[in-house]
Amino acid sequence: MSQVLALITSDAALLRCELDRVRQRFALDSKAVVGVGGWQDGQVVQRSYGVGVPLDDAWEAPESEAVMVASRVLGVGQGVDNGTQPFRFRQWLFAAAGGLEKSESIRERLREELPEFLQGAVRGPTWEEIAFAHFLAGLREIGRIEDSQLDPDTAATKLAAAAKAIEQVSASVGVSARPAFSLVASNGRLIVATSRGGARLSYTLLEGRSECERHELKEGETAVRDHRRLRSVVVASGVEPGDGWVALPDGATLAVDRRLSVTIR
């Protein structure tokens, strides 16, 4: 099984403060490998943590407007190098949550549908990476795989199409129940996410506040004003709705832009 959290914020310098606010709601499995990805100076920065490694450092993400934290329990033949999420292709990061019945059969069938250059880019044995490749294939069809100005609505449409492909292939290989999974993608300027089959995926808006344990804020300090102006949107798998968290409806797709405007379709 795998889990994912993605956050986009109005102030990259305070990203870690926002992660501190949500980390208790997002449990990282001690038996999983964990990956963290962000963007600094226009470049993707990634870190990975093997099984049994203390995970406090995983929350010390790069100073970035957007970040993705993902965990995955490795299967047979999978290692940290080819099984750790989030997966990367150029400026895109991607992670999935949940699990698929007959995942190997689904993976092979989905791989056959990919254009040749993306088949070659898939190095690992996971269905999550193949799902990422299907999302990228959709962007390539319209010539926008490297478009930094890509609008969230178009990205959301292509992510939903990748999810639909997984559902269709799952049925074609003899899986009777709807697969339960979530997909999340970001290029550092937007976040898109979708959930299928009853997989729990929730989101929340973090408003600014004057308290911050990390900075031990005092009233009147400049940092207090910065924290009060701060806003972020977070989407995470496995988080129970409540206390400001809202469940994404089954089959819906969420898109968040740099202005932190949220659209659900």
From TrEMBL:
The keyword Transferase applies. Keywords: Glutamine amidotransferase, Transferase. It comes from Archangium gephyra. One of its GO terms (molecular function) is transferase activity. The keyword Transferase applies. This is Class II glutamine amidotransferase.
